[in-house]
Structures are given as structure tokens and as C-alpha cells.
User: Which sequence fits this backbone?
């Protein structure tokens, strides 16, 4: 057996995180809570500023709803699944004896009030409530204030994913930039294409096989080698035609993207 794997199997038996309290009841909390529960972790409580969302999540996970963070039950981990802007303020309302991790890709560990056991448990994935997901190959990025707590979080992450990595705050922020580009920007471009199709009474489903192939190619080719299209070929007449067909807002984005491709391939 690999020594690294053996180390964490032994660690699991000695200091495993077995109980969790969820703070937040949105997409991330819903997915992580379900996967942790399925991995044998007891979700003891759920709290959210939106009480109804907390009730729904608690029912889903067989847990209890809290009205106040000062009512937190004794748990091995309080997992903050809240917005970046809310992390610091929520953290201040949790008694100091609790061990904490948060799920943000951008908030630096050093920017938060110091605790003996404070860490990051960041799943590098997009989450949509109600859409089931397999986390087994999803990267989970770990950072902590001390090695022991980092190892505990790493062992917990290994219960739901085979892709667990220690990263610094600086590395995690850079990774988050890339994640926004490949996920959020790609989705927004698809939205703009959908709007354009609908304005012309065209079926957006026609583009879905193309979207699928675009992503699948990236599993075997670099993005540089996979690029196709009029900007890649330097076909300026087609580029001009397309810009005239689009509305003002979308044509600006089309031009920016086309110019970036032209510059990349020196057309």
C-alpha cells in the first residue's frame, strides 16, 4: 500500500471528523451536506439567515435547525457554506472553541480572525440546487492554520473525493480566477447565444452537441490546439458579417473574443 494512503488511513482512525454543523443552506451546503452524510458523517445541525432554506436542508439531511449560532451542538467541524462577504461576520458569531472550515475560493485564510483550528474546504466545482452530482473526481482544495487541522480536513475530503490537494491562499485565488473563466464566462457566452437564437426564432438545442464536443475535446487536446472558427482562420469577412448580425452589446463581446483569438494565432 502507498505510504501516503496508509498515513491517511491511520489518521482517519485516530482523529477523523465524524460530526459536522452546516452554516449556510445554499447550493454548496446542500451538495456537500448530502455527500458527507452519504459518506457516514453525521450532520448534526443546519443554520442559515434564510430560516426556510435551513429547514428544507435539515429535513433533507435528517438534521435539526438552529435559530442562533450560539446554539451550535458539539461537533468536530463547523462548515461555513456562506458568501465570501459573510464569512468574517458569521465567524465572529461562532464561539471560539469550535473548529471551522469555509468553502470559499477567494477569501485568504490570513484575512480572518485567528483561531487554533481554522481552514479551507473548497470544492472546485459549480453547484446547482436540485441537480445531483458525483463529487468523487471533483478537486477539493485544503488550507489550514496548522498541519494537524489540515490533515483532518484532508482526511474528511478523501471520504467524498479522490482529488484532494493542499494549496495556499495565493494558489487558491489564482485557481478561482481560472475557474470563473472556464465556467462562468463559458456559461454566459452560451446564454448570449441562446438569447440571439431566441430573437431569431431558432432552437438553442441545435448548439448543444457542439457545446458537448467543445468540452470533450479539452480532455485530449490543449485549448490552443483545439481552437477552430473564423478568427482562428483569420476570416475577416465572416467576422464582420457576424458582428453586423448581433446586437450592440453582444457584438462588442464577439469582437473582444475574436481579437483575442486573432492575437493568439497572429492572424
Assistant:
Amino acid at each position: 500500500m502507498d505510504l501516503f494512503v496508509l498515513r491517511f488511513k491511520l489518521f482517519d482512525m485516530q482523529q477523523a471528523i465524524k460530526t459536522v454543523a452546516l452554516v449556510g443552506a445554499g447550493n454548496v451546503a446542500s451538495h456537500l451536506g448530502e455527500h458527507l452524510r452519504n459518506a457516514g458523517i453525521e450532520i448534526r445541525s443546519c443554520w442559515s439567515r434564510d430560516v426556510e432554506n435551513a429547514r428544507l436542508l435539515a429535513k433533507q439531511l435528517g438534521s435539526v435547525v438552529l435559530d442562533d449560532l450560539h446554539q451550535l451542538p458539539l461537533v468536530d467541524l463547523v462548515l461555513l457554506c456562506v458568501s465570501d462577504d459573510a464569512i468574517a461576520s458569521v465567524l465572529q458569531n461562532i464561539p471560539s472553541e469550535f473548529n471551522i472550515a469555509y468553502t470559499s475560493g477567494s477569501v485568504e485564510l490570513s484575512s480572518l480572525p485567528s483561531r487554533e483550528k481554522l481552514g479551507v474546504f473548497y470544492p472546485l466545482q459549480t453547484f446547482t440546487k436540485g441537480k445531483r452530482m458525483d463529487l468523487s473526481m471533483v478537486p477539493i482544495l485544503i488550507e489550514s492554520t496548522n498541519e494537524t487541522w489540515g490533515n483532518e480536513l484532508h482526511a474528511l475530503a478523501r471520504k467524498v473525493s479522490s482529488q484532494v490537494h493542499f494549496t495556499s491562499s495565493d494558489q487558491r485565488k489564482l485557481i478561482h480566477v481560472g475557474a470563473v473563466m472556464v465556467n462562468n464566462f463559458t456559461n454566459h457566452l452560451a446564454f448570449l447565444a441562446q438569447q440571439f437564437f431566441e430573437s431569431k426564432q431558432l432552437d438553442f438545442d441545435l448548439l448543444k452537441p457542439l457545446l458537448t464536443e467543445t468540452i470533450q475535446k479539452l480532455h485530449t487536446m490543449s485549448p490552443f490546439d483545439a481552437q477552430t472558427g473564423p478568427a482562428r482562420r483569420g476570416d475577416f469577412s465572416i467576422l464582420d458579417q457576424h458582428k453586423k448580425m448581433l446586437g450592440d452589446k453582444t457584438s462588442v463581446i464577439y469582437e473582444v473574443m475574436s481579437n483575442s483569438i486573432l492575437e493568439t494565432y497572429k492572424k
The first strand starts at residue 19 and ends at 23.
